[in-house]
Amino acid sequence: MSTAHGARARARIEVTAAIKEEARRQLAAEGAARLSLRAVARELGMVSSALYRYFPSRDDLLTALIIDAYDSLGESAEGAHDAAASPFERWITVCEAVRGWALDHPHEYALIYGSPVPGYTAPDTTVPAAARVGLLLIGIARDAHQGPAPDRPALADDLRPEAERMAADLAPDLPPGAVTALVAAWAQLYGLVGFELFGQFNRVVEDRETFFRHAVGRLALGVGLVPGPG
Amino acid sequence: MSTAHGARARARIEVTAAIKEEARRQLAAEGAARLSLRAVARELGMVSSALYRYFPSRDDLLTALIIDAYDSLGESAEGAHDAAASPFERWITVCEAVRGWALDHPHEYALIYGSPVPGYTAPDTTVPAAARVGLLLIGIARDAHQGPAPDRPALADDLRPEAERMAADLAPDLPPGAVTALVAAWAQLYGLVGFELFGQFNRVVEDRETFFRHAVGRLALGVGLVPGPG
DNA sequence: CAAAAACGAGAGCAGTGCTCTTGCATCGGC
DNA sequence: GCCGATGCAAGAGCACTGCTCTCGTTTTTG
């Protein structure tokens, strides 16, 4: 089989892990644009050309780091998630976990939600990891809609086809209007996080934690989650 | 003094403009990370070291491009702005202008609203240009609040100090709750634009124009703007 | 007119991603 | 156990990059 095949295979996974670890350290310290293959190799005591045996290009190394970052963020969000709480509280908790992770890993956040690296397009392998937070938010909305449906303004005619298509794709058991609001809230959440992280709130918002909690609370209302018991 | 004296000063402005023009072209074509001083100089038929007489570093050239990008975006938004329309319609128009500009200038949008270039912090000179769209949105909200105040949920106690501080800073004539909603909507607008531009909506949102118009319409509602006549 | 400042050109330094070749260690089939 | 195929590290090298310094030349200024 593949696992026990000698010391060679074992060494390969160890070196691969060491490269990613060192690369992640440089990424956290300096940012994606300053991540240098040669510096990683130098720090690991190997020569730069040897590193290409493990990652055929710098972009491939970046892709691995991107997937790891998505997974780390998804894990944080899922870990903060208390399934016993009310949907509204769970929404707030997940949003705060996303913000907290972003503040703890600014460069990794920038890597996945900031400007894409030029000449680089994320391969499809990143999609599942990238979807984790979204799926979590969909799950919360789904639980909330088990109860009585809040009155939601009727769907405008021109939005209806797209809303129904999105609902069919993402959450067939939810009303199309709720799914549309959910996707918008999902994007808007990252607007709030990104503005804080990238300095756009400098000299504008001071008490960012409180501001954020209220903003995502209003986002939750838009999705149909209600505070209070239940 | 430095101004207007002789052919040297004139040449300096011309060369500076040519550098920025060529740099902007490369920026649009390849993205900020691939913007190369040497390539700009080569294209202009000068040697790379000569370019340092005009921009002391690559970051200084980037700063100039950032300011230009903010101004270009601000101009687009202000140009699309029809002062005769209703505040709600004006809000939608400005948001759509921001989105349109972003789709037309993706790399420049990424430069100002994407990940900050590592090791680079925007100097204060960018602030006025960066504030233009925000000021435009504030103006729309101000006009809307000339009329009867819509009923808005009371400010939560923990948010009140920050909300009042923001209102005092940004729009003393607006209720603190409206200013808070406005700042949040401002950030959320860029979440919507960024997600579309950076590919997060791939395989999720198809009819992005319609989706966007409705999402920013709901944003407007949150700020207290109402559709229909008025 | 002479001193000073601005300028273009070139060489050079340290760094980058990436490729190619050269030996050596390990592995699988006989 | 041997032997050819494969995996791997090392080094040299290419074409770049940002940036600095020096050296004449030109323009501006006092």
Task: Characterise this structure.
The structure is a homodimer of 230-residue chains. With 230 residues, chain A is mostly helical. Chain A has two domains: 1-56, Arc Repressor Mutant, subunit A (Orthogonal Bundle), CATH 1.10.10; 59-223, Tetracycline Repressor, domain 2, CATH 1.10.357. Chain A is 65% helix and 0% strand. Chain A contains eleven helices and no strands. Chain A has helices at 6-30, 37-43, 48-51, 58-79, 87-104, 106-113, 127-130, 132-144, 160-170, 176-197, 208-223. In chain A, helix 4 runs antiparallel to helix 5 (87-104), helix 5 (87-104) packs across helix 11 and helix 9 (160-170) crosses helix 10 (176-197). The first copy, chain A, is elongated. The first copy, chain A, starts with 5 loop residues before the first helix and ends in a 7-residue tail after the last helix. The model of chain A has no long low-confidence stretch (mean pLDDT 91). The structure holds a DNA duplex (30 and 30 nucleotides).
Descriptive terms for the model:
homodimer; 230 residues; mainly alpha; Arc Repressor Mutant, subunit A; Tetracycline Repressor, domain 2; 2 domains; elongated; DNA-binding; HTH-type_TetR-like_transc_reg (chains A, B); transcription (chains A, B); TetR family transcriptional regulator (chains A, B)
